[in-house]
Design brief:
Elements lengths: L13 H7 L9 E4 L8 H18 L4 E5 L12 E4 L10 H14 L3 E4 L17 E5 L9 H4 L3 H17 E6 L2 H10 L5 E3 L23 E5 L8 H11 L6 E5 L5 H4 L1 H9 L4 E5 L3 H10 L2 E4 L9 H7 L3 E5 L2 H7 L4 E3 L4 H13 L1 H21 L4 H10 L1
Parallel strand pairs: 1-2, 1-4, 2-3, 4-5, 5-6, 6-7, 8-9, 8-11, 9-10, 11-12, 12-13
Length: about 400
């Protein structure tokens, strides 16, 4: 496998901490926003991109600064400046986030900025910042979708559209993880300067696991992710309830834990009504999560919308069979490595789960298809595509 080795966890000690306190007025070539490295999804993206970005800039003899919260400084090379955000833990989409960007721009005067999410720094529209180039990654377009899918109110959706339109006006490039996300973005902003860069999965997913680290033993069907509304978790819970008397498999929900009621109000009630057949394990450390995924008979992703969808690929790399909703992003990401179902049809999903839970040979064939797909995908995409696109834009 190609790729730079995974570094686990957040290093906020020793050299990194001392560097975090050293801001400078010297201009750097690129400022990368790593403040959200602890969050699900975007945090994995930041962790994955940073080593490739450092290497790409090093090869071009260009300098890098990373914007980070004081208690979440990523491990970086000695040549990378760490800019400690005075707006620590500034929430996304907030005034404090805008202040964090403004302070960082004043601190290092970068030639360019790369943000791993779509909100646009308003400070870039000041005359003194007019020469700073902007690069943005749009991981998905969920914030543009109607409330019954996104769970977002009118004001939040309009904010997203406004920010994306500002990105289009200001960006040198907008990077997306899939053609599906690129198409969704271009429907809203036809002139967006889109570059597609697929996200590889970390090579650690292919390594052997320690089965004793899994919090769940026995037979189970697995869902990994936060129970946000667009993840369509009620469909999976209802489909599993329909077959619970026919198969010995529990449904395990990992990643959301008891935050379900704050994300999708339907989930808490459904989980309560089926508590004897459902296990909530919350967020796990990396090795425990790999062990949990590897121990499942099936991983199911019932989403109504995705930007790319990496959990199915991670499951395939662990030797776990995958069922995925039949939406464009997952078709693109999972290819022939998964079986698909209508995300509005619980009976179709129940049929597939019943089949693969009961038929070991069919499940083994689906597992083999998944393994073939994920290994082929890893060997044919560039791990550094997004970093190279940004560095090319700098030049």
């Amino acid at each position: 496998m190609q790729g730079i080795s995974r570094t686990s966890g957040i290093d906020s000690t020793a050299t990194s901490t001392s560097m975090a306190k050293k801001t400078t007025k010297d201009q750097v070539d690129l400022l990368f926003d790593a403040r959200h490295i602890r969050q699900t999804g975007i945090g994995s993206y930041i962790s994955a991109q940073l080593p490739y970005l450092e290497e790409a800039l090093f090869q071009r003899k260009k300098s890098l600064a990373v914007l980070a919260d004081e208690d979440a400084v990523p491990p970086v090379r000695g040549s990378t400046k760490v800019i400690s955000s005075p707006q620590s833990a500034a929430p996304m989409y907030s005034i404090r986030e805008q202040k964090a960007w403004s302070d960082a721009l004043d601190s290092v005067r970068p030639r360019a900025v790369w943000l791993p999410h779509y909100p646009c720094p308003l400070a870039l529209f000041r005359p003194r910042n007019s020469e700073i180039k902007l690069f943005v990654t749009v991981l998905d377009t969920i914030h543009l979708l109607e409330r019954n899918i996104s769970g977002l109110g009118f004001g939040r959706r309009m904010y997203a559209r406004t920010m994306l339109r500002l990105d289009v006006r200001r960006c040198r490039q907008i990077i997306t993880p899939s053609h599906a996300t690129a198409r969704n973005l271009l429907r809203v902003a036809p002139t967006a300067p889109v570059t597609m860069a697929p996200i590889p999965i970390d090579s650690s997913w292919f390594e052997p696991v320690n089965p004793t680290l899994s919090p769940i033993q026995g037979k189970y069907i697995l869902y990994v992710g936060l129970p946000k509304r667009h993840k369509n978790l009620p469909l999976l819970i209802n489909a599993h309830a329909a077959i619970a008397s026919e198969v010995p498999h529990k449904l395990v929900i990992a990643g959301g834990g008891n935050v379900a009621s704050r994300v999708d109000e339907r989930v808490e009630l459904l989980v309560g009504n089926n508590a004897h057949n459902i296990e909530l394990v919350g967020r796990l450390d990396f090795d425990a999560l790999r062990s949990l995924v590897a121990g499942a008979d099936l991983l199911v992703l019932p989403s109504l919308h995705e930007g790319a969808g990496l959990p199915p690929l991670e499951a395939m790399a662990c030797g776990t069979a995958v069922l995925a909703s039949d939406i464009p992003a997952l078709r693109e990401t999972c290819g022939d490595g998964a079986d698909y179902f209508d995300p509005h049809d619980p009976e179709e999903l129940a049929y597939l789960m019943r089949r693969y839970c009961s038929d070991q040979e069919a499940r083994a064939q689906l597992t083999e298809r998944g393994w073939s797909h994920v290994t082929r995908r890893q060997s044919t995409i560039s791990f550094s595509a997004a970093a190279e696109a940004v560095c090319s834009g700098l030049e």
